[in-house]
């Protein structure tokens, strides 16, 4: 595999994640997973470009993205739990209290 | 070691904030369950120390720590104003938090974290550091919106805000990775050099478009504004105040740092897009606000309109509108301090202002609050001689000088539409009477709204010094 192939994989991952967010209209957990997938596709990009330019900063960026993604997922799940306590459901259709 | 101390000298405000944060965490873990005095006083002392340090601290400007962290006079002034706003916000939110029954100490902790994020954003010299600062602000905002755990509206608002925000930061990261792919570096100065020296690659432009999406989301401008009214309605009042004031300062820094310093040479690509979206958000926000019956959603939609003004002024390709946009951001922060401050002092344990109807007969119960609301609303509508008028006028002048006459006309018409719903608020306060009288606590919670209204009136009458001061900053 050449480095360009990794770039194509990254585009595909990004497209799958965005499509997953906008097509999926049911479950919040799936949205959280798709958000993680976006971040992983970014990581692919960074590593591929870091290999092309022989530059370390891309790889360092990847480590920070992994950490931030973990923090973000933790906060997202915490919010999801509070939401579940109130609504007894994690379906997007039940998020209908705020409108207008 | 000397070198290290030299560098650390430029980071003193951040270091004070970080140590204050650690002290606050320790204080919270040792204080009683629903006691927020320790956390509150630690935060106020930290913010005071930061403000004093930025005011009288003696540090050599223009530190540049190996292309990661930089300071300059204008960055220090921006930090100073952000710290003052955060101090006022902390003092005002204390009165509101006593109405909620959940653990309260952590609230101030998140305020400190978001201020730290704003500081890091404004003095970053590298896309990685910038991204980390931005995430610090964003993560603490998601948490704060859902802070009131007993309310299902708050949980729903924070979930929507979180999902949209996470997608936006994913787009931002993808954009950054493409920019890295086009230039081979994440350092601001090197990316800038690459755009000026050689011809611009397609990868670079696509990467910048992805970053534009994230900027529009953080501002809450036209196509990506759905979180704004929801968070204003669902969150607590001090959180809405934070979103209206400090979060707008953070978005301003986002726009300024990335588009006006890093991608300055690409302004023929981003300027028309941002200008169009700014005009659209002024018109859309103000038109949709007309049919709102919920006061908080109305304020949310009017925020979208105000943000449009800031974006239009920022997206002048020449960069002449940056000072005016900064002035507008600060003035809007002062106006929201006055408006939300009044709403905080009117709310109590069993009474929370949500709809217009709740303001009925306010003039009979409390003339003071009614006059304060009159001042703020007139200032937001842009009626002379209040400060909001001058902020709008300067932006319109700059647009006409730069040959954007049609944009200026649209903005004036949108402001006229806005005057209708602003006057509707005044009508409910002064001319509708109701059977029940509000129980108003005459307390210290009125101090900051009164101060903000005095600023709006006095500086509105003598604007020259203040405007010069703000325009000099950037």
Summarize the topology.
The complex is a heterodimer of chains A (100) and B (474).
Chain A: H1 3-23, H2 28-53, H3 57-87
Chain B: H1 2-10, H2 12-30, H3 37-56, E1 64-65, E2 69-70, H4 73-97, H5 105-122, H6 127-145, H7 152-183, H8 188-197, H9 202-219, H10 227-234, H11 237-244, H12 246-262, H13 267-289, H14 295-314, H15 322-346, H16 362-365, H17 367-381, H18 387-401, H19 405-431, H20 447-461, H21 464-473
Helix pairs in contact in B: 2-3, 2-5, 3-4, 3-5, 4-5, 4-11, 4-15, 5-6, 5-12, 6-7, 7-9, 7-10, 9-13, 10-14, 11-15, 12-15, 13-14, 13-19, 14-15, 14-19, 15-17, 15-18, 15-20, 15-21, 17-19, 17-20, 18-19, 18-20
Salient structural properties:
heterodimer, A: 100 residues, Helix Hairpins, B: two-stranded antiparallel ribbon, globular
What does this structure look like?
The complex is a heterodimer of chains A (100) and B (474). With 100 residues, chain A is mostly helical. Chain A is 78% helix and 0% strand. Chain B has one domain (2-473). Chain B is 75% helix and 1% strand. Chain B starts with a helix and ends with a helix. The model of chain B has no long low-confidence stretch (mean pLDDT 87). Chains A and B meet through helix 1, helix 2 and helix 3 of A and helix 6, helix 7 and helix 10 of B.
- Write the CATH architecture name of chain A: Orthogonal Bundle
Count of alpha and pi helical runs of chain A:
3
Catalogue the unreliable spans of chain A: none
Chain pair forming the biggest interface: A-B, 41 and 43 residues
Rounded radius of gyration of chain B (Å):
22 Å
Strand content of chain A: under 5%
What is the spatial order of strands in the main beta sheet of chain B? 1-2
